[in-house]
Amino acid sequence: MPESVFLQMDAAKKAALARGLSLIDLSIGASDLPPPQVALQALSDAVWDPSTYGYCLRSGFTPLLEAVADWHQQRFGQKLDPARELLPLIGSQEGFSNLLLATTNPGDLILLPDPGYPSYLGAVAIAGLQTHLVPLQEDQNFLPDLQAIPADVAARASVLVLSYPNNPTSGVATPEFMQQAVDFCLQHDILLIHDFPYVDMVFGDYEAPSVLDAKGAMGCAVELYSISKSFHLGGFRLGWAAGNKDAIAALEQLKSAVDFNQYVGIQRAGIAALGLPRSHTRQDARRLMERRDALCQALRGTGWDISVPQASMYVWARIPAPISSFDFALDLARETGVTVAPGRAFGTRGEGFVRFALVREPAMLQEAAQKIAGFLKERV
Ligand SMILES: Cc1ncc(COP(=O)(O)O)c(C=O)c1O
């Protein structure tokens, strides 16, 4: 399994602190915005309700799935059957890993984006899969060219992984792209996993499409959702899978041997959060957008040609100096206390880029940009 770059980053942060620098940590996408009060209250109440203390079987998670089905109906107009097309997860990361175990055999081939979310590689290693990397390139808006996948690879592949709005590139998809992906997967009998934790982190008029709205999607696709990003509750570990019945059934069977689902009190927190009006997540997205604008303007002011993302909580930027992404991130951390994620940590095609997480207020992002400008001056 791949080593986590964040351990190396941790050492660089310690070195900065030892030099008396204050840290501005933009390296990890852990949202700092406040979670909804109603969610916290629901958990707090549940802790004093003895009916929540036992193992959670299907009857225990039915209320969550009904709330999730209502959310899909309101958000996308989708009618999903809570009994067969939805399943609660202990976060979308857990769901991804167990879904691979449930639906593949060791040696099967998976099509993975490069760059991509690093934990995919760990999950693929656990499931013993072979990998074919699909490049996400800037000149193609970080969308894979599915027609460029060699015919023998497409014929052999069992799973295709997509995630839009994308981590780390901030790339976004259109409904037309989702349809192409579904058509490709139906044609080649491939399970399409769309990892969708950034569904609510969208800016301006942009709306992130659900793959389940594509024609034929319920025949081949599973979409993974999470309360981690939408409601700033990453530590609560709650999400859900939606989509193809057979894949959901396989995942439920596997999970029944592995876990007893998330604590019902946390599920109640999720129900409370999902019941909030859309204006709640829109307001949080507006705050992220202000941060995006502050950071992008400040970096552009230093002469860095930054593309402004339409969604996600990241700014993905090509490094404007002859320095590797690891050296950039580690040296920047040690010398200035500003930490960013090196692009290489997300795959070989991430080299040459860094990722900024929009997890601080605008003034601090501007301060970070000034420090970065000083750091870069000595290197260009
Ligand atoms: C693409 C992607 N998938 C999954 C996750 C993890 O989500 P969860 O907290 O629901 O496991 C993250 C977190 O950063 C992510 O960026």
UniProtKB/TrEMBL annotation:
The UniProt entry, under InterPro entries, shows: Aminotransferase_I/II_large (IPR004839), LL-DAP_aminotransferase (IPR050881), PyrdxlP-dep_Trfase (IPR015424), PyrdxlP-dep_Trfase_major (IPR015421), PyrdxlP-dep_Trfase_small (IPR015422)
Q: Which cofactor does it need?
A: pyridoxal 5'-phosphate
Q: Which Gene3D superfamilies match?
A: Aspartate Aminotransferase, domain 1 (3.90.1150.10), Type I PLP-dependent aspartate aminotransferase-like (Major domain) (3.40.640.10)
Q: Mind telling me which residue stretches traverse the membrane in this protein?
A: none
Q: Which SUPFAM superfamilies match?
A: PLP-dependent transferases
Domain Aminotransferase class I/classII large: where? Answer: 23-372
Which UniProt keyword terms apply here? Answer: Aminotransferase, Transferase
A molecular function (GO) held by this record is:
transaminase activity
Protein's name according to its UniProt entry: Succinyldiaminopimelate aminotransferase
Q: Which organism is it from?
A: Deinococcus roseus
Q: What is the lineage of its organism?
A: Bacteria, Thermotogati, Deinococcota, Deinococci, Deinococcales
